[in-house]
Amino acid sequence: MVHPHTELRFVNPHIGWGVFATRAIPKGTIVWALDALDQQFAPEQVASLPPYAQRQLQIYSYVDGRGRHVLCWDHGRFFNHSCNANCLSVGYDFELAIRDIAEGEELTDDYGTLNPGEPFPCGCAAPACRGHVLPDDMLRLGNGWDAAARDAFFLVPTVPQPLWEIVRDRAEIESALAEPERLRPIHHHYRGAALTPSRTAGMTAEVTVSLL
Ligand SMILES: [Zn+2]
Q1: What percent of the chain has pLDDT over 70?
Q2: Which of 31, 82, 93, 178 has the largest CB neighbor count within 10 A?
Q3: How far is CA 28 from CA 7, 65, 125, 131, in A?
Q4: How far is the CA of 81 from the centre of ligand 1 (A)?
Q5: Per-residue pLDDT tens for 21-36?
């Protein structure tokens, strides 16, 4: 479910629709959280879908750490990519505002955190645009994303959180707020990480344990 102070707006014919703030949203706000109405498709379910449905999933879903396609039921599926995203995830099923977001500003995410199945070119116009988003961006860039999201995570208890009641793993999150070394890294979401621990080579021992 997307934060209530957002709405869908048309960006342009090339990009299509996007998610915009209807009020200022402070850094540390949970702007999206996985909820009971979001649909999750295991790989074998995706394979059994007709081609048109598979194409829609490729456009509108993301892939979680167990390799499942997740299709948001609301305008959460219209978050656009930016290489300088103002929203990122840590290792839980929510997205955080990692900067203060102004009223009228578009909320963006980094699709590199969402396990894209194929590389795709990026023309997001951010000064640090990477030019391409790659399936293994999470392994190469995850530490930087963790650093960018960490400050925002520890602001979670200090700003209004209208989505808190639907956030999963709240006890674990509260534990990480009290003991920062428990904070789950973004690698927790890497495609198939929970199923293929050998792909965690290069991560820290602590991260590998959490993925097992
Ligand atoms: Zn870009």
Answers
A1: 90
A2: 31
A3: 19, 23, 25, 28
A4: 7
A5: 999 999 999 999 999 9
